[in-house]
UniProtKB/TrEMBL annotation:
This is 5-formyltetrahydrofolate cyclo-ligase. Its cofactor is Mg(2+). It is an enzyme of class 6 (ligase). Belongs to the 5-formyltetrahydrofolate cyclo-ligase family. Its EC number is 6.3.3.2. One of its GO terms (biological process) is folic acid-containing compound biosynthetic process. It comes from Subtercola boreus. Keywords: ATP-binding, Ligase, Magnesium, Metal-binding, Nucleotide-binding.
Amino acid sequence: MLSQTSNIKRALRAELRERRRNRTSTERESATEAFTQNLIALTGQHSAKLVACYLSAQNEPNTRPFLNWAFANGISTLFPITREDGLLDWAHGDGETEAVGLFGMPEPVGELLGPIAINDVDLIIIPAAAVDAGGMRLGWGRGYFDKTLGSMQKCPPVYAVIYDDELLDTVPREVHDQPVDGIVTPNRILTF
C-alpha cells in the first residue's frame, strides 16, 4: 500500500509530465539553447573534465547539444544505464549509438563500467520532475539516482536540469530521497 506522501508524489509527477507534454516546439527550442549555455557555464565553473549526464528523453530538457559540446571540447562523459536490481551502471558511449533502456529511456551503447565508475566524475547532471527551494529533488519515481547519490562516500556537485516553473516552494519527501546541490534552468544556474 502506498503512503500518503507517495500518492502526493505520483499526482505531482503526473501534473509535471502533462506540463512538459504541453510545451510548444518553439518553447522547447528556445529552452534548449539556454539549457546548453548554462550547462556549459556550469561545467566551466567546476573545471569539470569528467561529467556524468543523462541522455534526455522526448519531453525532458534536451541535454544533447550540451553533450555534443562536451565531446567537441574534450570533456569526457559518463551516461547511466539502468539495471533490474535498481542500481545504475555507467558507460562512456560512442557519442552516436543509443539503445532503449529498461523503462523506455534512451541509453548509450558502450562498455559497461559498473556502479562505482561514477566515483571519478567532477560533476553530476541529473534529470528531475521538480526541485524545491531547499534543494530537495523530486525524481520520476524509480529511485535510481537517489540510490546512487545516497551510496556515494564522496559526492561531487550534483545539479538537476529543470524548467524554471519546476522550481517549487516544497516537494514531498521520503526518507530515501536525496537533495541536489543546485539546478540548471533556461534562465539560471542556482546553487543551494
